[in-house]
Every structure is written in structure tokens, then in C-alpha cells.
Design brief:
single chain, mainly alpha, two-stranded antiparallel ribbon, globular
């Protein structure tokens, strides 16, 4: 059921993204070509889906959340473009297709990522039919959680611990920031835009943070036992790069158990809400068993 709901939402959201990214077509618009190539490369659209789910659970109506959903996906996409660069993870493929710097070139990829990041805030600021105070609060969360103490902070930790054996606490801190921060942004912004109260925002954060940890541990598991065709990238890269991961530190079987534990923590956080949270519960369950 949730798989079909994700697919249906992805199709609607994909069309919306195509509209947002439709501008510019001239000899000096290679950065737009690279932006469109990367953001329309597919993916689960988890963050926009989670944002919408919390928006609806907290009483939001209509499609006024879409600008922020697009902004979040732009920031996520820019981070993937930069993550794949030779100076970072040096990955040639993303979702089974050439990474942005391989499809274009390194300079264009770098600038395409920069452009997506700045465009994200332009699109968020154009949100209509929601109070300006809530829009400002949403933009503030977006900036904070994608910035130096959020997603970027997690990427810094990831680079710093390459080829090093570090405590599990350091790995978890990286997961909370690098993967969890944008999921938290999705959940909290959806709650904020719908006018959710303080307890709802805390619960949304708790759900997304634990979901993010579970998601990243599952990623580590798939890097060991996954199917490269389904993943769209080679498996075994963490071991090859001597990365400290949840699996390398706690073992495969314990990692599988802990995915379930963090998923249960995420689902338990939803008890605060009076609205229908079944979609968010189903999503958490679905991500435990994902193969890519």
C-alpha cells in the first residue's frame, strides 16, 4: 500500500518539479541542464513525502506545502551532486546513471549544486496561502538543518573519519546530521506550515531522527549484502574505503536488530498526534525491508 502511495506521490511531485525547473535554454545554461538532470534523476522523494504527511496529520489542507517540498528536494539533490564529486566520495554513478560531474563536468556540477541550494530558498519564500510568520519559521528550520550544524556538519564528520576507527557515538552523530537532519527538516516544516504546536514539532523531530538513523543503518547493511543492480551503485564501497559504519562496528546481525529498534522509536513518537498517522507508520515499516 505505502509503496503505491509513494509512487503516486512521486509522479505528481515529479511533474511539479519539471514545472519549477522549466526555465532557461540557451548556450550558457549548462548549469540548468545539470540541475534538471540531477533533480529529475528519480529517487524515493522521501523528504517531500514526509513533509506532506506531517502537514496533513497536523490539519494542513491543499497543496500549499509543495514549494517547501521542492526546496527540500533541491537541497537534498545539491548535497548528492557535491557528495559524488572527486573531492568528496568520488562516485561515478547515482541511481544507476552517471553522476552529475560525469554527465557534464566537475565545474558545472559544482555550480549546479550551488544554484540548487540558492534556488531552494527562493522557491520556499514564494509559498502562498500560509502566514508569513510560519513561512519564515519554515525557512529558518530549512537553513539550520541543512547548514553547518546539520547536514553539512554530518558530511564534515563523514570526511574526517574516513579510514579511521571511531566510537559508535561518532558514527551515530554523523547519521543524525548527514541523513537525519533533512528528514527532521521535512517532518518539522510540514508540522510548522500546518500550524502544529510545540509538542507536535518535538514528536515530528523524534520520528524523523530515529527514522534517519534506521535508514542509514539499513544503507550500511545494503552496502554489505545488497544488490548493486537494485541500488544503482556498486556494493562494498564502505569496506573498500575503510569507513567506520554501524555494521563494521556492531556487526551485521546487531545492525539488523537495531534498525528495528530505531524504527519502533520513530513509530512510538507518533502517539502525540490526533490525526491519522497510518501513512507514517507504514512508511517506517516499509523502509526496514527496503532493498535499495
Amino acid at each position: 500500500m505505502i509503496k503505491e502511495e509513494l509512487k503516486a506521490f512521486s509522479e505528481i511531485f515529479e511533474n511539479y518539479l519539471k514545472e519549477v525547473m522549466s526555465a532557461q535554454n540557451n548556450q550558457y545554461s549548462a548549469h540548468y541542464d545539470a540541475m534538471k538532470y540531477s533533480i529529475l534523476l528519480g529517487g524515493k522523494r522521501l523528504r517531500p513525502f514526509i513533509l506532506r504527511a506531517f502537514y496533513l496529520v497536523c490539519g494542513g489542507e491543499g497543496e500549499d506545502f509543495l514549494n517547501f517540498a521542492a526546496s527540500l528536494e533541491m537541497i537534498h539533490t545539491y548535497s548528492l551532486i557535491h557528495d559524488d564529486l572527486p573531492s568528496m566520495d568520488n562516485d561515478d554513478f547515482r541511481r544507476g546513471k552517471p553522476s552529475c560531474h560525469k554527465a557534464f563536468d566537475e565545474a558545472t556540477a559544482l555550480l549546479a549544486g550551488d544554484a540548487l541550494l540558492t534556488m531552494a530558498f527562493e522557491i520556499a519564500a514564494k509559498t502562498k496561502n500560509i502566514s508569513s510568520d510560519l513561512i519564515v519559521d519554515g525557512i529558518s528550520e530549512l537553513a539550520k538543518l541543512s547548514g553547518a550544524d546539520g547536514m553539512i556538519g554530518g558530511q564534515i564528520v563523514d570526511l574526517a573519519i574516513e579510514s579511521k576507527k571511531v566510537p559508535i557515538e561518532t558514527v551515530l552523530d554523523m547519521y543524525k546530521k548527514k541523513t537525519g537532519a533533512l528528514l527532521v527538516a521535512a517532518a518539522k516544516i510540514g508540522t510548522i506550515l500546518a500550524g502544529g504546536n510545540y509538542d507536535m514539532k518535538l514528536a515530528a523531530e523524534e520520528y524523523a531522527l530515529n527514522l534517519g538513523i534506521a535508514f542509514q543503518i539499513q544503507d550500511d547493511i545494503l552496502d554489505v549484502i545488497g544488490d548493486s543492480k537494485l541500488l544503482g551503485k556498486p556494493v562494498g564501497s564502505d569496506a573498500k574505503n575503510q569507513k567506520s559504519t554501524y555494521v563494521s562496528l556492531k556487526g551485521l546481525e546487531q545492525a539488523k536488530l537495531d534498525v528495528i529498534e530505531y524504527t519502533n522509536k520513530a513509530k512510538n513518537a507518533l502517539k502525540v498526534f490526533d490525526g491519522d498517522t497510518s501513512q507514517l507508520i507504514e512508511l517506517a515499516n516499509y523502509l526496514i525491508d527496503r532493498k535499495y
